[in-house]
Amino acid sequence: MVLRHLLQGRRFAAESVLVLENRLQGIADLLHQAPPGLPVYVADRAVMDRVAGFAIHRGVLAVGLRNPAQPVATQLDGLPSTATVVVCIGIANHDNVGSIFRNAAAFGADAVLLDSTSCDPLYRKAIRVSVGAALTVPFAMFDDADGLVGELAARGFLQLALSPRGERDLREIHRAPRTAIYLGSEGEGLPAHLIDKLVATRISLAAGFDSLNVAAASAIALHHLTANSGCG
Fold first, then answer.
1. Which of 22, 16, 15 minimizes the C-alpha distance to 43?
2. Helices in 115-213 by DSSP H: which ranges?
3. pLDDT digits over 44-96, tens only?
């Protein structure tokens, strides 16, 4: 699936593919869709495991080419008039970043924005967990969270901070034409000074339980905020 997104997508180009001998026939149709001249190397399991550094049970690896980093302002200027973006602050776990991208793709988010303390969505584990969504969902990195708040406000975004300390329940929030959902790291969460600038929003839980995994919270918020037909 990840290789399919790489070869069929328009955001990144493939440099080469490495395939286990017994997997070549199974992905032959996909490889036929690759650009002409793409190198495809075939190896036995011992060689592939040495190349990868661990056992690759699916038997397919590829090298993709990064594009130059796109400024956040450029990314925002290219969004449609109705848009949903996810903002990650301090999400340093690759599994969580990959899952957030997968959720963003599943619910039709238009972009993911990550601060410099979040992990790289193009790290191979993040790509794998995202099931290739990190290769298809537009994203950009930023350094100044306060500056981003101003950028999004200037473009008419309703900005929500997901936090257990939020005063408003998520079910009370209606999707605006443009909505930004801020997610913080598990444990520390979003910085207090940043929450104060946003609409602090919580996902109400059963008594005695205080929080969800950040990726699970992103799925709930995206489902709610992209499914509502009304604006408010």
1. 22
2. 124-129, 145-154, 192-195
3. 999 988 888 888 778 898 999 998 888 999 999 999 999 999 999 999 999 99
What would the DSSP string read from start to end of 29-49? HHHTTSPTT--EEEE-HHHHH
pLDDT of residue 231 exceeding 70: no
Domains in the chain, CATH or no CATH each: 2-65 (3.30.1330.30), 72-227 (3.40.1280.10)
In this prediction the pTM is 0.90
Helix (H) or strand (E) holding 155: none
CA atoms within 13 A on the CB side of 175: 17
